[in-house]
Amino acid sequence: xxxxxxxxxxxxxxxxxxxxxxxxxxxxxxxxxxxxxxxxxxxxxxxxxxxxxxxxxxxxxxxxxxxxxxxxxxxxxxxxxxxxxxxxxxxxxxxxxxxxxxxxxxxxxxxxxxxxxxxxxxxxxxxxxxxxxxxxxxxxxxxxxxxxxxxxxx
Length: 154
Prior knowledge:
CATH topology: Rossmann fold
Structural class: alpha/beta
Helix content: 25-40%
């Protein structure tokens, strides 16, 4: 697949430092998957439904994969996950919960609501690089993802 036209990785993360680390890791590993960042759950839903600042589907393509933090402002990560997985037009997008919460309840509810995976944010740079490389190899190298998810007008 041509990486320049590849659907992006959507990172839903409110912590700027975590975003910078992921961007650094992608660059360090020479991973060229387009990255889109939404800083909170409300912005993420606007992006996915092409609302407000994201009304142009050409400028806001549906992601191939979502990395979702649970602890977000406005609309929390579990609400975003629930919204995505209950929507016929979005539910095929794999959602990986990317969080610092090791709470068993968060893990269980994430999978019950349709998370594809649950990853604890790494505490070392080496571990971050290893995880990002594994995500890239699996989701963009091994797994077969739908070509495109098309949002139809409501």
